[in-house]
Amino acid sequence: MNTYFDIHSHHVGKLPASRTIVNVNSDFNRLPDYEFLSVGLHPWHLQASTAEAAFHNLKTAVQQTNIIAIGECGLDKACETDFELQSHYFSLQMDLAVETGKPLIIHCVRAFEETLQLLNQRINGKVPVIFHGFAKNQSTADRILSCGYYLSFGKHLADEKTTAVFLQCPLNRIFLETDNSQLPISTIYQLAAEAKRISIDLLYREILNNVQRVFGDRIFTAHE
Asked: What are 22's strand-pairing partners?
């Protein structure tokens, strides 16, 4: 029986029956005891008065073996957080990803040019990069893919425009996620397989290969 991979979920305390990377964006000194975590300073929650201490706790936390990715982190022009503050801590987290050799999970809203520029300056192929919750147009997808990065899709696969973009994405550059959606990851897989017009089994095998390439063997051998 196939095991679904959910590479980005905020459902702390109610995990689906899958291999799930649970995202935590605060209280890094009190992390939940889950098998796979990603940790990062989200631009929505950055505050000048607390960001330095939070980043210090993040740097300590990432040494744990169950933390297998940095993020979500990035840039967001739709929120009220000062953009320079966002850029500063996004840069620090990119450097942390390179230092630890862990993949980077990106949050990006209305700031793709700035995000890609910083990634080019600081990451430049050193670690895998995943843009999560992708629901933008084909040209944006093409820009990201041309840089060697990955796209992760979720609930927006129920939307026709996102489905059309997803159809054009190479199978070896995609991931699937639940994020904060109530849709189970099995439903996301079904939507993805229908959009690609392939079987669930083929989709599973392709994403398994991507998981192995980006996160290593541990994420899908832990329970074998």
From this structure: 9, 37
